[in-house]
Design goal:
Layout: E1 27-30, E2 34-36, E3 39-41, E4 58-64, E5 72-74, E6 80-86, E7 88-95, E8 106-112, E9 117-121, E10 125-132, E11 137-143, E12 155-157
Antiparallel strand pairs: 1-9, 2-3, 4-11, 5-12, 6-9, 6-11, 7-8, 7-10
Length: 169
């Protein structure tokens, strides 16, 4: 028999995620859709999940064409909560907070309609999204602070920046 590297455990027998996010302050909740007589019902966010204890200040959706890449972005004070409602995406994070115990860490999560999850991204953590597969992906964001049109809390870097040790594109 050929030798190789054995798979490591990623889920429990109940299909709960084994590995927590490796970036300080990032929270993840895998969500189980409920089968109904007409399809599926999927909760997106509930206060009692205690993911971050912050309010929901605004909810918006972003559609991404197949293969689309958002580029890296971060916030100074806003917390993002990303949920892929249609299609699938890879959410990539980079901890750019110099005072963080996980400074410099890169972490990824594949999420979508088939395997729903919500990823909570604190201020100072760079993140980018890549749409996977042949379908349009629909990402919801449930931010704690509404977008300020006159003073956006938004910083951007290109997907292939040398400042982050992972290329989105």
């Amino acid at each position: 028999m050929a030798t190789g590297t054995p798979d490591r455990q990623t889920v429990t027998p109940d299909w709960l995620v084994v590995d927590a996010p490796t970036i300080d302050g990032v929270a993840l909740k895998e969500i189980r859709p409920v089968a109904t007589s007409t399809g599926y019902l999927t909760e997106v966010f509930r206060e009692e999940w205690n993911l971050d204890g912050l309010p929901v200040g605004q909810v918006f959706q972003r559609s991404l064409y197949p293969g689309a890449v958002t580029g890296w972005h971060a916030h100074g004070v806003t917390t993002d909560r990303l949920f892929c409602a249609a299609g699938s995406v890879r959410i990539s994070l980079f901890d750019g907070r110099k005072a963080s115990p996980t400074f410099g860490t890169v972490w990824h999560k594949i999420a979508g309609a088939v395997r729903p999850a919500i990823v909570v991204i604190p201020p100072g953590v760079w993140h980018g999204v890549v749409a996977l597969g042949p379908d349009i992906a629909m990402v919801l964001n449930l931010v704690d602070k509404a977008y300020a049109y006159d003073a956006p809390d938004h910083w951007r870097l290109p997907p292939d920046t040398e400042q982050i040790p992972y290329k989105l594109a």
